[in-house]
Amino acid sequence: GAGVSQSPSNKVTEKGKDVELRCDPISGHTALYWYRQSLGQGLEFLIYFQGNSAPDKSGLPSDRFSAERTGGSVSTLTIQRTQQEDSAVYLCASTTGGPSSYNEQFFGPGTRLTVL
Amino acid sequence: GQSLEQPSEVTAVEGAIVQINCTYQTSGFYGLSWYQQHDGGAPTFLSYNALDGLEETGRFSSFLSRSDSYGYLLLQELQMKDSASYFCAVPGGSQGNLIFGKGTKLSVKP
User: Fold this and answer.
1) Confidence at A101, pLDDT banded by 50, 70, 90
2) Which residues of B touch A42 (CB under 8 A)?
3) Residues 6+ apart with CB under 8 A from B25
4) Do the chains contact at B42 and A59, CB–CB below 8 Å?
5) Nearest to A108 by CA among A2, A12, A31
6) Residue from A5, A53, A102, A111 whose CB has the most chain B CBs within 10 Å, to mutate
7) What's the rounded Cα separation, in Å, for the pair A84 and B66?
8) pLDDT of B85-101, one tens digit each?
9) How far is CA B106 from the centre of its chain?
């Protein structure tokens, strides 16, 4: 079956512009996570969705970052007024939710964002 | 807070055995996971330990000692394709988001 997909795979933007990143999780997976990975670093948790609601937004680094999920499926992460420090790979993961989330999370290939 | 420590780099030769250690500090503990990530690729799940002991999956094994807040990933019969970064991770809370270590870059030499 299809895995987690993300688009675009690469995005180059100018400082101050807004960007929108998309994640399409595995069909039937109710839990969706966004992470950010800076060069040579581990993954940093950004936000979590269970269905369409985001009970945990604690990881969003600033109010320029927002995310939504519609229909319990596709999610978009929006970064407004991008800054150079936003340059990173943005990864999305999905799971069936609940305790299985402690176990295997299925990651998409990521969107590499470069802010000039 | 929660944090994980693992070596930044490990080098080994083809056919050898390598152990990648991970120590963690967490406010609650729900298990230790390991992920593999090739350059430019997505992290992929390798193993999960919720209880003490050794879990074996083919050439890869993972060990956990909850009393020592310590685990390791053991890779046997190393192959060139095992060259990648390996991350240990713990759930950040009841909602399942993962807290990752900074990763160990494994280089396998011929």
Assistant:
1) low
2) 87, 100-103
3) B1, B2, B3, B4, B69
4) no
5) A2
6) A102
7) 40
8) 999 999 887 667 889 99
9) 11
